[in-house]
Amino acid sequence: TSALKDKLTEVVPKEQEKFKKLKAEYGSKSLGEVTVEQALGGARGVKCMIWETSLLDAEEGIRFRGRTIPDLQKELPPASGEKGGEPGPEALFWLLTTGECPTPEQATALTNELHERAKLPDHIEPMIRSFPKDMHPMTQLSTAVTALQTESVFAKEYTKGLNKTKYWEAAYEDIVNVIAKLPEIAALIYRCTYYDGKVAPYDKSLDYSANFCRMLGYSDPEFDELMRLYLVIHSDHEGGNASAHTTHLVGSTLSDPYLAIASGFNALAGPLHGLANQEVLRWILDLQAHFQKEGKPVNEETIREFAWDTLNAGRVIPGYGHAVLRKTDPRYTAQREFALKFMPDDDLFHIVSTIYKVMPDVLLEHGKTKNPWPNVDSHSGVLLQHYGFKEENFYTVLFAVSRAYGALAQLLLDRALGFPLERPKSITSDWIVKNVK
Ligand code: NMX
Ligand code: MLT
Hints:
Layout: H1 3-26, H2 36-40, E1 54-57, E2 61-64, H3 69-75, H4 89-98, H5 104-116, H6 124-130, H7 137-147, H8 153-160, H9 167-194, H10 208-216, H11 221-233, H12 242-251, H13 257-268, H14 276-293, H15 300-312, H16 330-342, H17 347-366, H18 377-386, H19 395-416, H20 429-435
Antiparallel strand pairs: 1-2
Helix pairs in contact: 4-19, 5-9, 6-9, 7-9, 7-13, 8-9, 9-10, 9-19, 11-16, 11-19, 12-13, 12-19, 13-19, 14-18, 15-17, 16-18
């Protein structure tokens, strides 16, 4: 039984009806012009995709089904069951897919459903154990998730001749199964790459995040809270970001959810996207090491100097700038608040805070980036470091586990709403010269 699937069985027909009306009423209306500059500039600002689970405002940041991060912290049930505790990604997934906040019982039912679906098929663990230790953890993750596709219910049913009206139900099986299996896959990658390969036994009495922490090798309840926050805030950032968009595009070919999310992970693995969290941490550690060698303190002046060295070398400042946001990312602020509460005296946190003081002015003076403010990746690494999670090459895997929740919530809706193959029109430069007046 699945409480979430039962709920979706009520919600999906209403959503289908809503979309039918939307098409009839607004189908011929314009969403705006597309300029040549936009076509050349990575389609920035072009509105051509529907993404129901979240919406990004350039000034205010992300809203998950209309809710800010502080709203989620108030309205979703805490994963630990303790008043004031962080909600977990399970509760968020219920909200993203159904549009409603779950009750504590509904959130727990989903946690239990994920536990029941978590067991890996026999070929995955030996495969991860055989990966070379120097294979990047994101490469390991996407390879393992691609190999997990042997389990796809959607692919098997489609081959048998699946009726279109049943797509979402088959997709549901794959989506919940892949989310359920990600913690053990990620923990195996972590423990095999950096430690002795031993993974703590799966503990069904814990919520998704706490069990994930145990399998990674962490048992501090404060770290569990950080993981819950981390998995919630990295989940969804509307549809245009590269990992969500890739998942949506690949899924639109009716590639199954395993193949779609593995493709999304490959997009997340780029340094302009999710890999930036690894890059930020490295930038901070390099900065520390550089000035230690020179016998200088890390302060506003030396950070400014290091930033200019980076920019003058033709590199970007990782963790700053954004394709849509034009203010400080509220996900940065949520992490800063966590740090102020749990680690106000942490050295790396102080460096991150000092970078925040000087970097916007440096970037404004540099004069290129449209957004001189920090994004989510600017803060996440130092929080992990505080709890002894030092392996920065693994950080993007945590981002990926979280992003699966958002990208797959919308993928489920894509199949429920019968969204078609995505195939925008491309043009050549000659076409522009000949046709654009
Ligand atoms: N440092 C230096 N230059 C920058 C930065 C930065 N942080 N951000 C943007 N620019 C440059 C950018 O490279 C471009 O230069 P050019 O004209 O030579 O090509 C110029 O400013 C205009 O770029 P924007 O229109 O402001 O930014 P765009 O939308 O193209 O790119 C990012 C957005 C996020 C890719 C860009 O800001 C960046 O490279 N930031 C650093 C990497 C990063 O933190 N990525 C993580 C984003 C969040 N996530 O998790 O995905
Ligand atoms: C994300 O979370 O996907 C990033 O902030 C990038 C984006 O939104 O484009």
